[in-house]
Amino acid sequence: MKKTDNLNVPKLVKEITIMMFGMLITAVAIHFFLKPSGLIVGSISGLSIVIEKLTGVPISIITFILNSILLILANALIGKEFGIKTIFASLLLSPYLAIFEIFFPAQKSIMQDPLLDLICFVLALGFAQAILFRINASTGGLDILAKIINKYAHIEIGTALIASGAMICMTAFLISDLRIVIIGLIGTYINGLVVDNFATGFNTKKRACIISEQYKEIQEYIIKNLNRGVTLYNVTGGYKSEQYVELEILLTRSEFSRLMEFINKNNFKAFITAGNVSEVYGLWHNNKGPKKSLNS
């Protein structure tokens, strides 16, 4: 009988918490910065604002309907995991917006300046989008179209957001003047850049190269305590032609901090260089579990 994997409860709780937090930030950005300013930034929320002003239907209802249609596409074209997570996340948006509409009706722009509202909106939304994309979810809406473009056209997620969002911005001509449309297009472009910037920051890893006489102790700590693989190289010192062993490791920032703490605590003599790596492919991954060193 095939053995099935047990449900990873801590991972599930963590991802649900991230989705709830991300959608709360999204709702705050829409209700307090986007809607009262009258800006139409490229998003389903922006399109919902246009439809609301043309029809009088509450934005929470319009958002729910449009997201429902796009969620079907997400499940069919991107994958079940992404679809389920995005369904859960996007279903949170309408209740959040409805609560804000009832208890915190925003009639006027908080910042009293469209440009400042735009900056606050794209920074908040970009952060929310980035943390959700990181766990293979999204805020729903236009993010789904961007994810589809990202998957099948193989372009950066931020660029995909800009391309799909620009089309939504053009609908603002139905309710706004040229100035507002241009501001919206600028906001859409900045939003794509912000998402890429946050995503890069979240995905950044540390590549460390260590030369030490205590390399075996360091190797053992990396494998047993950090649960990471390590590559060993035989190297020759250029000054005295002495033979050494160099360890090369790819770690998260927190794991790198733990490794440095271990080395300093034990007073190991070591020569260490470290740099940032923005993208990782292949065998290395974030999921914890038994791994073997590439040299084992």
Quick summary of this structure?
With 296 residues, the chain is α+β, with helices and mostly antiparallel strands. It has helices spanning 9-37, 44-55, 59-77, 80-103, 114-134, 142-153, 157-170, 178-203, 215-224, 253-265, and strands spanning 205-212, 231-236, 243-251, 270-277. A hairpin with a 6-residue loop joins strand 2 and strand 3 (243-251).
Would you write up a description of this structure?
The protein has 296 residues and is α+β, with helices and mostly antiparallel strands. It contains 10 helices and 4 strands; from the N terminus they run ααααααααβαββαβ. A 4-stranded antiparallel beta sheet has the order 2-3-1-4. The longest helix has 29 residues, at 9-37. The model is unreliable at 289-296 (pLDDT under 50).
Summarize this structure as a short list of keywords or feature phrases.
296 residues, alpha+beta, 10 helices, 61% helix
